[in-house]
Specification:
The protein has 396 residues and is α/β, with parallel strands linked by helices. It has eleven helices and 16 strands. Helices cover 33% and strands 28% of the residues. Strands 1-2-4-3-5-16-6-15 form an eight-stranded mixed β-sheet, sandwiched between helices. A four-stranded antiparallel β-sheet has the order 10-12-8-13. Helix 2 (12-24) runs antiparallel to helix 4, helix 4 (104-119) packs across helix 11 (379-395) and helix 6 packs antiparallel against helix 8 (269-289). The relative contact order is 0.19.
């Protein structure tokens, strides 16, 4: 039986070199020109059929096994974030104000390593592998839709039709050696809401002649907190967070309008519908009671990420065999964070797993999207080994 951990370990210098290069040259969503170019070049060097420009800047490499079988899509995200890096690492970002603060540089280098490993075993594979290097997972970055949806729009799930998917995330919330492969919901669905409260402006010293949208906004924020505590079951999960409140131009002027933005997070589609409906009722109802008008827009960013039982069972077996010393975790509902891979997994059965990457002793334990985010690069070995092994187990 192939020792995928040994092969990933032997290829670590290759993986690390790629990762550090990507880290030094981060690119925002739908601008991954350099990154996508390197990805395409590496895949072409393996002799894979490569398609560029899928979802604007995405890259797809096709590896056909020696025998017929299903098509398995392996997805790796490539984009960085608009953050000024503060790690002080020798491979720190050279692009001012742009940083790989979520580990996508690691994901991309893992993907290329997995391609190299599996290409060497293509005569043993019964089926086809699509290596999907996705742009703009972190958001739409000015477009109407994000990277996963953009690639789906360009037909990434067709030609050949994808039957199953695998994807992963390096996870700095947990230490090196932790591996999470769980059935069912693992990441939350996300909504973005925007609210405009329209009142009647006036002098701060004569509030009775105005209709104060600031007071109305405060009442809405307070009332909306009752949704989770009083409309969602105790064993269900939801989050309603107001994160932006804008209104007013001077200390003595009651403004005409107040703008508010925030997010709603849920796992269950029924809970989502309940929370969104109740949210809109409360916003409009409270505004009306306060004499204001409310314009409410709730936009779904991603559905919940739900792992298919049969695919996940195979990955769990692969993880126990390939990483026997790891701390294996199979509990669902891992995080209220969202992931646009959920759009693909809503169409095709798949498994999304996590590899612990933090190392407190090396001070590599800052959270995702932090200016000092960095991870223990030994996690690259575990990620590549498990992804390659799981793909092979599905197709052999």
């Amino acid at each position: 039986m192939t020792d995928f951990l040994k092969q990933a370990t032997e290829l670590f210098p290759y993986t690390q070199t790629l990762r550090r290069d990507f880290h030094m040259h981060p690119e925002l969503g739908f601008n991954e020109i350099r990154t996508g170019g390197i990805v395409a070049k590496e895949l072409e060097a393996l002799g894979l059929e490569v398609t560029k420009g899928v979802g604007k800047t995405g890259v797809v490499g096709l590896l056909e096994g020696a025998k017929p079988g299903p098509t398995l899509l392996l997805r790796f995200d490539m984009d960085a974030l608009p953050i000024h890096e503060e790690t002080g690492a020798e491979y720190a970002s050279l692009n001012q104000g742009v940083m790989h603060a979520c580990g996508h540089d690691g994901h991309t280098s893992i993907g290329l390593t997995v391609a190299k490993i599996l290409n060497a075993h293509k005569n043993e594979l019964a089926g086809t592998i699509k290596f999907c290097f996705q742009p703009s997972e972190e958001g739409s970055n000015g477009e109407e839709i994000g990277g996963a949806e953009m690639m789906m729009k360009d037909g990434v799930l067709e030609g050949p039709k994808v039957d199953m998917t695998l994807s992963m995330h390096l996870w700095n919330e947990k230490p090196l050696g932790w591996v999470h492969v769980a059935k069912g919901p693992v990441m939350a669905g996300a909504e973005e809401f925007k609210i405009k409260i329209i009142g009647k402006g006036g002098h701060g010293a004569i509030p009775n002649l105005a209709i104060d949208p600031v007071v109305c906004a405060a009442q809405i924020i307070s009332a909306a907190q009752s949704i989770v505590s009083r409309n969602v079951g105790p064993l269900e999960t939801a989050v309603v967070s107001f994160t932006i409140v804008k209104g007013g131009t001077a200390f003595n002027v009651i403004p005409q309008e107040v703008m508010m933005e925030g997010t709603i997070r849920t796992f269950d589609p029924l809970v989502r519908n309940k929370v969104v409906n109740r949210f809109e009722e409360i916003v409009k109802g409270v505004a009306s009671a306060m004499g204001c008008q409310a314009e409410v827009n709730v936009k779904q960013l991603t559905p919940a990420l739900i792992n298919a039982e049969h695919v996940t069972a195979t990955v769990q077996e692969s993880a126990r065999r390939v990483l026997p010393q790891a701390n294996h975790d199979n509990t669902p509902y891992l995080t209220m964070g969202a992931e646009d891979m959920a759009y693909i997994q809503s169409k095709v059965d798949g498994c999304y797993f996590f590899i612990g990457s933090a190392n407190t002793e090396k001070h590599l334990d800052y959270g995702h999207h932090h200016p000092k985010f960095d991870f223990d690069e030994q996690a690259l070995i575990s990620g590549a080994a498990l992804m390659a092994a799981a793909a092979a187990d599905i197709l052999i």
